[in-house]
Amino acid sequence: MSETGIVVVGGGLAGARTLEALRDQGYEGRLTLVGAEPHLPYERPALSKDHLLKGTPLEEFTTFDAPWYDDHDVALRLGVAAVALDLAGHTVTLSDGETLGYTRLALATGSRARQPDLDGAGAEGVHLLRTIEDSERLDRAFHGGARIAVVGGGWIGLEAAAAARARGAEVTVLEMGEQPLGRILGTRIGGAFAELHRRNGVDVRTGVTVARVIASGGRAAGVELEDGSRIDADAVLFGIGAAPNIELAAEAGLAVKSGVLVDAGLRTSDPDVVAVGDIAEQAHPALGRYVRVEHWDTARHQPEVAARTLRGEEASYDRQPLFFTDQYDLGMEYRGNATRPDDVVVRGSLDGAYLAFWLDEQDRVEAAMNVNSWDAGDALAAMVAERRMVDRRRLADPDVPLPT
Ligand code: FAD
Q1: What does pTM read for this prediction?
Q2: Closest by alpha carbon to 157, among 178, 132, 176?
Q3: Ligand 1 atom closest to 248 (CA)
Q4: Is the CB of 321 within 6 Å of ligand 1?
């Protein structure tokens, strides 16, 4: 490879781990990280957990500390965005006007929080949660007695609701669907999460649509629902999903759909460019379809394969998606990718420790979740990876050993 080396665009977990994997694999060429945020890459799960709950400082959840980048001979370009990509010329233009050449390029531009398109959404006291700055603003808003309206009962909304409750705020969660998390976990397990929050004092309202943010003197004072009712609040958090940052790739002419399309080795439609982490919509060899996974575990592990591809080796990423969450006294891991969220077999008690399994039409395990139960993780991983066929009745019976 010539002098220009490898440029990684996107200073999140996937970007940082791609640099690490390249050096671990013996790559000795030039390495540059371009990151739009002014911070070293950091671990976002901590934003809605440790940071909001315990005030853990940013330094404790940066992926690598500053000396690591020196030690690994990485040139850092933080606080500047890549604004244009010339695939034919092998250059990236940055927001400060500089142009970098590259031999090979990794795109790890991640996602941004979806913005609500509603009247009043620009008022002070309306929040999103994606960055350390967002988390710091929420940290100031979540205090004893504050009234918090959380719009969206997804992972971010529910984790933030739990953090706000832990800090003594009054919380209302407003979810459009039949249950929070229903699209991912189905209505039965989503209902168990709703109950968890209700037991912890959250007013969870489902089947409701927020029509606008009520603002008074430029500050959010609550939200109005489509039925005209009103929820008073001192702060409103929108947790309505994430949008992948694919514009740079799309404008350059790379193939994109809901993410940047990549093959099993994370190679984009340009052989000199890989995409990794939240933006990668991968032809997943084990799942047999394209998937784009917005999970920490994917951003953590795809880089090893991305680095191999960047170095010209043949590699394939076939790890099953894995997600985790912590809310109140509940901790869980979810493996796989259920295509039929409402077809679930539960083993154990929904208000305590349990396992849940999502099956396909042939009763094969597509996804599995362990809640407050940590011994079964490996068994569940194997069942999902092998898509094991099960007997529903025996699977639900905690006295019958899990099939091995
Ligand atoms: P990102 O972390 O989004 O990083 C991308 C970076 O690229 C950003 O810094 C962005 O500013 C930068 N960038 C974008 N465009 C450009 C550009 N043009 N030029 C330069 N830089 C650019 N996942 C779990 O599995 N479990 C959890 O419990 C969990 N909790 C979460 C809690 C919160 C609050 C959030 C926000 C996410 C959580 N996630 C969780 C998801 C997980 O954090 C993401 O999947 C992961 O961060 C993806 O990493 P990434 O590097 O692909 O993207």
Answers
A1: 0.96
A2: 176
A3: 18
A4: no
